[in-house]
Specification:
alpha+beta; Alpha-Beta Plaits; 3 domains; 4-stranded mixed sheet; 11 helices
Length: 400
């Protein structure tokens, strides 16, 4: 039984640049077993019946890779942000994928609103309203969901030069919306290659991932590489986005602990907010505890553990998703065991299993959501746990 190892860390290497389709293609080139759930999410997102997406083989600058291709009628019925948001919110997507889709879409809308100095609900997308952009956003969201728990690192980006033709006429590069989204990112020295190098959709995906780009790349075992190719040829350089996936913890390191109390948010609304908070890149765990606060009121004490490098983005998400007015922050040292996630199959169903190296032994624990999704009753779930653990341990027993 073949098991597929999932990465703990992913390095994005924007050799040629970053676009939505290049991001999806690179990930699916590295982890092909994610393709079917990604395609399923795109089909469930409400595209026209004539539309389809596929992976194709491409070469760029002597490198072989994959291209993520959209085929079909491209013009969408509306470019208004509220209409697109409503359409995607009502699409038949899983809850976790929907969160990523709407977050990426909102980042694009916020950037457009800032560029044109209008309210976000007055944003009207032009080029970004096409069905192919929706396919890229949904596919990227499904990829991110499939790699849940991975931490992201991005090497310096290419800036690009020249202009791009839009509905507003010729605009300078980077496109204004992309530049808005990439504030704070690191760029490399000009390589002399003109044209658009990071598209607005690619920039929104990067902003959503909130990758590290401080030069401290992860260490560990390289388990997968992938190459996503763009459709354009660049002079003297491959137009590719390369990804490198690593397994295992690079070091013990520190963890950011965020704590706050909630006594004025309904249980239903707080539960929704905390579930959305768990999906924020950089968040490692969210836990709640019951207690009594002032005037003997019941409260929920919330503890969030996150990557210190993503402090600002995670704190902003806490304020966005909960009713708290303040948080307590501290960094703590931690010790961790080396682990990796492998994917095993049972009768066509994929189950993620976390395999951990303990002193003198190796243990495995299946993801509860994957077990629950089978809906086989308690006895069936117990059998699936045993099968998943056995197959994961056997798949990794030859590793050092």
């Amino acid at each position: 039984m073949k098991a597929h190892a999932l990465p703990s860390f992913i390095v994005l290497d924007p050799v040629g640049g970053v676009s939505g389709d290049m991001f999806v293609a690179a990930i699916l080139d590295a982890w092909p077993f994610l393709a079917e759930p990604v395609f399923e999410a795109v089909r469930d997102s409400g595209l026209p019946a004539t539309a389809r997406v596929s992976l194709v083989e491409r070469h760029s600058g002597g490198l072989a890779g994959r291209g993520f291709v959209f085929e079909g009628r491209s013009a969408a019925p509306t470019g208004a942000y509220p209409d697109i948001r409503r359409r995607l919110a009502e699409a038949g997507l899983s809850a976790s994928i929907r969160v990523h889709v709407l977050a990426i879409l909102r980042l694009l809308a916020e950037a457009e609103a800032a560029v044109h100095r209008v309210a976000i609900d007055d944003v009207h997308f032009h080029e970004l309203a096409d069905w192919d952009t929706q396919a890229d956003i949904v596919a990227a969201a499904a990829v991110i969901d499939g790699l849940q728990g991975a931490r992201w690192h991005c090497r310096p980006l290419p800036l690009g030069t020249g202009t791009v033709r839009t509905a507003h006429g010729l605009l300078p590069l980077p496109a204004p919306a992309a530049a808005q989204l990439l504030e704070g990112f690191t760029f490399r020295a000009d390589d002399g290659v003109p044209g658009e190098r990071v598209t607005p959709t690619g920039a929104a995906i990067l902003r959503h991932l909130a990758p590290r780009f401080d030069g401290g790349e992860p260490r560990g075992k390289l388990i997968a590489t992938g190459v996503g190719t763009g459709s354009r040829s660049l002079p003297g350089i491959p137009n590719v986005l390369r990804v490198l996936g690593f397994a295992g913890e690079p070091s013990a390191g520190d963890v950011l602990v965020i704590e706050f109390d909630i006594d004025d948010q309904s249980p239903e609304e707080l539960a929704t907010g905390l579930e959305r908070l768990r999906l924020v890149p950089g968040v490692r765990d969210v836990a709640t505890f019951h207690g009594l606060g002032k005037k003997a009121r019941w409260l929920q004490a919330v503890r969030v553990m996150a990557d210190p490098a993503r402090r600002d983005a995670v704190v902003a998400a806490v304020f966005d998703e909960t009713a708290t007015l303040g948080v307590r922050l501290r960094r703590e040292e931690r010790a961790v065991l080396a682990r990796q996630t492998v994917v095993v199959n049972d009768d066509g169903a994929a189950v993620r299993v976390k395999v951990t190296e303990r002193p003198g032994r190796r243990t495995a624990k299946p993801e509860a959501d994957d077990i629950a999704a089978r809906g086989q009753g308690a006895k069936g779930r117990a059998r699936l746990r045993r099968v998943a653990i056995d197959r994961a341990l056997r798949a990794t027993e030859s590793e050092p």
